[in-house]
Amino acid sequence: MRDIANVDLDSDDSGSILESGLCCEWENKDGSGMQTELGEENEEVMSEFYRRNSEPPTDEPVQEQFDFEYPAPRTEGLDHPSMPDATWFTNFLVSFSYTVKFFFARLRHILQLYGWEKCKGNVESEKYKNFVPLFSGPDPLFIRNIYRQGSDVCNRPVASVPGTLMTVRDRFTPDYGWTFEYKGTESRVLNMGSYNYLGFAQNRGPCAEAARRAIDQHGVSACTPSFNFRHNKVHKQLDALIAEYLGVEAAMCFPMGYGTNAMNIPAIVGKGSLILSDQLNHASLVTGCRLSGALVKVFKHNDVNDLERKLIQAIAEGDRTTGRPYKKILIVMEGIYSMEGTISPLPQVVALKKKYKAYLFLDEAHSIGALGETGKGCSEYFGCDPTDIDVMMGTLTKSFAAAGGYLAGTKKLIDAIRTRSHDIHYGTWMAAPVAAQVLSSMHIIMNKDGAGEGKLRIRQLLRNTRYFRRSLAQRGFLLYGHEDSPVVPLMTFFCTRTLIFCRETLRRNLAVVGVCYPATPLTKCRARFCISAAHTKEQLDWVC
Amino acid sequence: MDSVVIPIYTTIVSVPYYHYVLEGLLVLVVVFLWNRRNRRPRRPQLTEEEKEELIRKWQPEPLVPDTPQDHPALNPKYVDGKMGKYVSIEGKDYLNLATSNFLGLVGDERIEEVAKKTIYKYGVGSCGPRGFYGTVDVHLDLEKQLAEFMGCEEAVLYSYGFATIASAIPAYAKRGDIIYADKGVNFAIQKGLQASRSQIEWFEHNDMEDFERLLKIQAEKDLKNPKKAKVTRRFMVVEGLYLNSGDLCPLPTLMELKWKYKVRIFIDESLSFGVVGSRGRGVTEHFGVDVTDVDMIMASLENAVASTGGFCCGRSYVVSHQRLSGLGYCFSASLPPLLTTAASEALRIMDEEPERFDHLRSNGRRMLEGLRAAIADTLFYVQGDALSPVFHIKYRSDDVEEAEKKLDALVDNAFEKGLALTRARYLVGEEAFPIVPSIRLTVNSQLTSEEVDKSLKTIAEVVRSLTKK
């Protein structure tokens, strides 16, 4: 059963792509050419793209093949997130299916408790029978009897570079998910699950060479926090380059993206302040907000009106526990949300924060490098001034194929974070090869080597995103998210349907991510595709 | 109608009189409460003009305060090249007694070769969290290797040391549980305890009597309320080797208390992994405790192993829970493959070259004895166990600022003479307990006896020159 999404394929925005002169490669003006046969494994196409993509990428600079004007961002309808709901019948069936599942899970649990069914999972040792049980509540039940049966979809081991084509180790479970065994074979699959937006996940090429040189010159690691020592060439350069890239005064890099949020939000706000956090913020932001000690209030996802209401209420009423006004108010939100693919309404939020004198923390984990004409993220995409955003945060894992995160803003902010950050005092350095990878990929994106490859990658990513989303929507799949977001969640609602989808796609050599509770609500399971600039049209056609 | 009214009437008339009193009272109570509900004072509703006025008047604090430019965090020393036995700062070489490179694995050629080969196979980043195609086969190999190294059933690998400890504790301990923690634990553990929202009971550093006192108090409370006691989980969190003081924990006593009072034990072996024990397996090997009796061992790979990341190991029943509920595991990108294979190779070197542990221990002992001699009869004193590679040099003074000045002077003067020392850095406002300023001096296995003696001589000279003034 499929629900048709609300997509207007005749809208005139499609003309900006078609007029570029390369329409014959993508689609004809009457819309034909976008369709491929559904469900058939097109042997010719597959063998062709295997042949073409089995060679490693060369070091030749990529030629500018077309003159593609980066289209204007789609800003209408942003404050009402494009997350269409299923029909009431689907929702009813989903709830019914969960009732059945939990009933059987409970039954199984009772059978295991009394020993009628053999529990093949881990059990507590006999020595601890007088201790208070370590796990209780509904979560262990869910994990043991529901999640376990679908656990072959998660944690699939990869045995190569996570580029567009990658190798996955084949494994099977002889006993419904209690144990896994490896077949000893590997499959070459098309990767639509890894975060590789600009296609920098390569094991050859200038970035890999830069990382290798960094190991020779600076070593792998350093065993010291960043407070007392920093690296002259690596960290100083990287901080300056990130600041230049974003167009702000200063920046600072950290070795872990999750840690950048969790360890630095407490350095910015503390007790007596208020944090207004989006409903669907990432776990790292939630952890950071909790550890800061400030009061946290949640506003509806991307709902600017709700945010304004809460701002007015906060300023008018103040902190009810102390009876005084709040010291400061910080709005925390993300650029692209990783589970929904929605883009936050940045211009409206910036206008609000200026009106009410609040501060804005923008987490661009998925949008840096993926949005904007030169990959500078949400602020460039919407044409906002980056200095309007008080704290810009991002991760280097997704678009730059490295690891770590950064914070950027005014010099005053970065100085204060340096003196108060948990990471600087108690963590460790960013490893030199990882930083070198970021440096070289950022150089390419900023076109410092003059080859134009960065611009090409960014534009290719947008073309791929729009093409893919339109193709899927044409086939009747329900997609969440903004049209330009490279994160494409395909709604399946039933967690069983998500499981089958992921299993069948892997059988057909396509790697897709299936997401369920707790990353998403229980009744809104989905499969998620991550588009990369390195995907070719044939590959996307084959996927569709 | 009659068939309804007449039975009701006869019932009303035939009941005893106290029913009238009771039900009359109930009706009065209901009426009274209903009236009170209406008369509860409401929050004054603000008009639009009043709200605009408040918004106009409200002045928030600046996002961050001004920072003085001479703050030490804004003036780190910029290093060139690798931070091995010697560090190169602005063209000059200094003997490195500041970093936790205990086994001298920074700059090791074998590790670097393996890391370079890994880049050529896997690229640099893993591009995803563990659940979504971020699990590379090298992660699974390292986890297996760590579990075998420690003698445990399973190990879980994280991508950052601080996040390992701060995520592992809240995965098990929730609101309503009790955690007993040593007052000397490091900041990462304190953040993990804060995130868990459990009731925290602090006991004096390494004081087992104080700990037992707290356990006895709780045992009495349990007798009074056995139902609550049955659902309250208890944990104790200690470090193998304390970063803030260089002491070992008294593990045998802790294990006795564990079995006596039914408290699960989590040990943070960030510093002691690869350092303590004849083969570097940590405090369990050193004290001869069965490692499967320890509920969980958490460690960071950023010290002796000279990589990045961390791991938790223990019985599968306990540790596998983190694969779904450890926030730093599920919601963070996995460790880059090159750092994973570097850690793998480091473990292999540790197995093949156990003499590194002996060198480290002998250097540590030599340094400790020499330091005690060098700073005797001064207000400086040194803290640390003979087995520890980390020592704290502190200054006896009630005035914290004066102590900091003296310690900074020691660091600067030693730096001029070619010795790289650092102050131990803490976030003073956020640590759970008051901090005594100190210099954190580390030794590593590559130092020769001459280098140790030379550095002791330098420190002695500097201390003498400082105490003369």
From TrEMBL, chain A:
Protein's GO biological process: ceramide biosynthetic process; sphingosine biosynthetic process
Reactions performed catalytically: L-serine + hexadecanoyl-CoA + H(+) = 3-oxosphinganine + CO2 + CoA
GO cellular component, one term: serine palmitoyltransferase complex
Matches recorded under Pfam families: Aminotran_1_2 (PF00155)
E.C. number: 2.3.1.50
The Aminotransferase class I/classII large domain, residue ranges: 188-543
Keywords: Acyltransferase, Pyridoxal phosphate, Transferase
Cofactor (UniProt): pyridoxal 5'-phosphate
GO molecular-function term, one example from the UniProt record: serine C-palmitoyltransferase activity
Superkingdom per UniProt: Eukaryota
Similarity comment: family membership: Belongs to the class-II pyridoxal-phosphate-dependent aminotransferase family.
Protein name, per record: serine C-palmitoyltransferase
Species in which this protein is naturally found: Plectus sambesii
UniProtKB/TrEMBL annotation, chain B:
A Pfam family per the record: Aminotran_1_2
Regions that span the bilayer: 17-34
Keyword terms of this UniProt record: Acyltransferase, Lipid metabolism, Membrane, Pyridoxal phosphate, Sphingolipid metabolism, Transferase, Transmembrane, Transmembrane helix
SUPFAM superfamilies: PLP-dependent transferases
Gene Ontology molecular-function annotations: pyridoxal phosphate binding; serine C-palmitoyltransferase activity
Domain called Aminotransferase class I/classII large: residue spans: 93-459
Residues spanning the signal sequence: none
Cofactor: pyridoxal 5'-phosphate
Domain of life: Eukaryota
Pathway of action: Lipid metabolism; sphingolipid metabolism; Sphingolipid metabolism
GO biological process terms held by the UniProt record: ceramide biosynthetic process; sphingosine biosynthetic process
EC number(s) from the headed UniProt entry: 2.3.1.50
Entry keyword Membrane: yes
rRNA processing is among the record's keywords: no
Cellular component GO terms, alphabetical: endoplasmic reticulum; membrane
Entry similarity comment: Belongs to the class-II pyridoxal-phosphate-dependent aminotransferase family.
PANTHER family the record matches: CLASS II AMINOTRANSFERASE/8-AMINO-7-OXONONANOATE SYNTHASE, SERINE PALMITOYLTRANSFERASE 1
Stated name of the protein: Serine palmitoyltransferase 1
Species assigned in the record: Plectus sambesii
